[in-house]
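Lecture notes, unit on binding sites. The following record was shown on slide 14. It pairs a sequence with fe (ii) ion.
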Amino acid sequence: MKRRKAISLSAGVAGITGLNASNVFAAGSKRFGDTIIPPSKETGKEKHVPIIDAPASVKAGEPFSVTVEVGKTVPHPNTVEHHISMVQLYMLNEDSQFAVNVGTFNLGPTVASPKITVPVMIQSTSTLYALGYCNLHGVWDYSVDVKVG
Ligand SMILES: [Fe+2]
C-alpha cells in the first residue's frame, strides 16, 4: 500500500481514524473531517504551523521525546481573544491504514504556551502528524517521518 500524506479525522473521534484516498485534494491540500487545509506557502515561518521536533531515526520500542510547538519561528498571539486552544499528535505506521492519536492537549489562553512534549514509542517506521487549533484561524498541520532502524 502506498503511503499517503493525508489523514482523515472523524469528528468527535480522538482515537483511531481512517485513511482514505479521497481525502487528498489540490496538490498539497489535506482534509481533516470537514476542514480542507491548503498547502502552507511558508511552512517554516507561518505562526500557526505546529512544528514537530523528533529524531529522524529511533530503535523499535524505545521511548523518545516528541515536541510540537506552534509559533516556533514566528510567535502566535496568546490572548483570550486569539490563542492556540489545542494541539494533537497522531502516529501512522507503515503497516497500518489507521492513524493513532498519541495525545490531545487542551491549552488555556494566556497561561499555556502552545508547546508540548510527549514520550512516544514506535515499533516500525512511522509518520507523526501534528494538528494545531487556533480559535480564530482554524486547524493547521505538519508531519515528519521517523524511521526505525
Ligand atoms: Fe491565529
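Take-home: The domain at 42-148 is CATH 2.60.40.730 (Immunoglobulin-like).
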